[in-house]
Design goal:
Blueprint lengths: L6 E10 L2 E11 L4 E5 L6 H9 L6 E6 L2 E2 L10 E4 L11 H11 L4 H14 L15 H13 L5 E5 L7 H18 L2 E6 L2 H7 L2 E6 L2 E6 L1 H6 L4 H6 L4 E12 L2 E6 L5 E5 L9 E6 L5 E3 L6 E10 L4 E7 L6 E5 L10 E5 L6 E2 L7
Parallel strand pairs: 3-8, 3-9, 6-7, 7-8
Antiparallel strand pairs: 1-2, 1-4, 4-5, 9-10, 11-12, 11-14, 12-13, 14-20, 15-19, 16-17, 16-19, 17-18
Bound molecules: adenosine-5'-triphosphate and magnesium ion.
Length: 361
């Protein structure tokens, strides 16, 4: 089967007793893309993957690979590669035997098997490891064996459930790039389940954000990060400052003046839609998009509560009048403003994201 085959989930739902793990959910994964399913614990990521793999049957809906409805097919007939958080490698078998396992199950002759195993180990830069046992490998090497084992059978779909979860931070970051590189090279349609937003943003072509059994936003990493539709998405994908404001008036085409709920300062937001003057709006601004200025500057007066050096930037925690939740600002500036310092904060109209969930605070 071709590697770059699309996958479609059509209105799949799943209930476990009283828990509605998945609401009717529809998802199109394009051929050859890496799609990340991102969401908090319990939102239904693994359930979605297990339905695709055939380990769970959906209550409703269907799963299609290409044109083919596979909803009723048993897992071993689905042509899938899977990698889990703990790899599930066979500890008593060698690397080569682990990778050959799926081929053996399929009755591939020994000579052919050996050839394919070797080619796959080369691809994973494990050429010299064939005879080793699993416990003689590092975490990253084990991860590559797991990947080799899942890819050696030429699956049409690769399913990854927290595949890097067992690795420490440095190795994890390196493996993100390696895994991504291999996936691109093979052009295999892949779904990556993670609750790590950075991992989702770095590795995938598109991110589907899940909340309580539903996909609430889907798009390219930059799109979901820069243009989240809701407070949930904006806060789940990194840090977001949420401001409640009242619309004052239209300043010019696609530009509106607002007043923050707890302040006097007028701020500008870019927005193509027609806003009702006097209406309440909710705005998100990323910490790296906020500008911090001397007390005399325009914008909102604020007080520095704390400042932390994070290696490549300073993270400021500020408070603004009458607002309980702190504001975070990340700057590259070398000279740190000390705690209790007075500043003003401002943003450019384009970096203010108008959130769609406008329910009153
Ligand atoms: N076999 C099962 N029996 C009963 N409830 C289940 C079963 N599998 C999952 N659930 C429930 O369904 C919901 C979704 O679970 P799921 O494992 O899909 O979440 P997840 O997004 O993968 O979370 P995590 O990030 O913690 O792995 C949870 O409330 C979970 O408790
Ligand atoms: Mg899970």
């Amino acid at each position: 089967m071709s590697l770059s085959v699309p996958l479609r989930l059509e209105g799949i739902s799943k209930r476990f007793g009283h828990v509605q793990a998945l609401k009717p959910l529809t998802l199109d994964v394009r051929g050859g893309e890496m799609l990340a399913l991102l969401g908090p614990s319990g939102c239904g990521k693994t359930t979605t993957l297990r339905i695709i793999a055939g380990f769970e049957t959906p209550d409703e809906g269907s799963v299609l690979i290409g044109e083919k409805d596979i909803t009723e097919l048993p897992p071993n007939k689905r042509s899938l590669g899977m990698v889990f958080q703990n790899y599930c490698l066979f500890p008593h078998l060698t690397v080569g035997e682990n990778v050959a396992f799926g081929l053996k199950m399929r009755g591939i002759p020994a000579a052919d098997r050996a050839k394919r195993v070797r080619a796959m180990l080369e691809l994973m830069r494990l050429g010299n490891f064939e005879e080793r046992t699993i416990h003689q490998l590092s975490g990253g090497q084990q991860q590559r064996v797991a990947l080799a084992r899942s890819l050696v059978t030429d699956p049409s779909l690769l399913l990854l459930d927290e595949p890097l979860g067992a690795l420490d931070k440095n190795l994890r970051e390196r493996m993100q790039f390696e895994l991504r590189e291999i996936q691109r090279r093979l052009g295999i349609t892949s779904i990556l389940v993670t609750h790590d937003q950075e991992e989702a943003l770095t590795m995938s072509d598109r991110v589907a954000v899940m909340e309580a059994g539903a996909i609430i936003q889907i798009g390219a990493p930059t799109e979901v990060y820069e243009r989240p539709h809701s407070q949930f998405v904006s806060e789940f994908l990194g840090t977001a400052n949420i401001f409640h404001a009242v619309v004052l008036r239209r300043v010019q085409q696609d530009m509106w003046a607002v007043r923050l709920e707890h302040g006097k300062a007028e701020m500008l937001i870019a927005c193509a839609a027609n806003l009702a003057s006097g209406g309440a709006v909710k705005i998100a601004v990323r910490p790296e998009r906020l500008k911090m200025d001397a007390p005399a500057g325009g914008g909102m007066p604020a007080m520095v509560r704390d400042v932390v050096f994070r290696g490549s930037y300073y993270a400021y925690e500020l408070s603004i009048a009458d607002q309980a939740s702190p504001i975070f600002v990340y700057t590259q500036a070398r000279k740190a403003i000390p705690a209790d310092g007075e500043v003003t904060i401002d943003w450019s109209p384009e970096s203010a994201i108008l959130l769609a969930d406008q329910a009153a605070p």
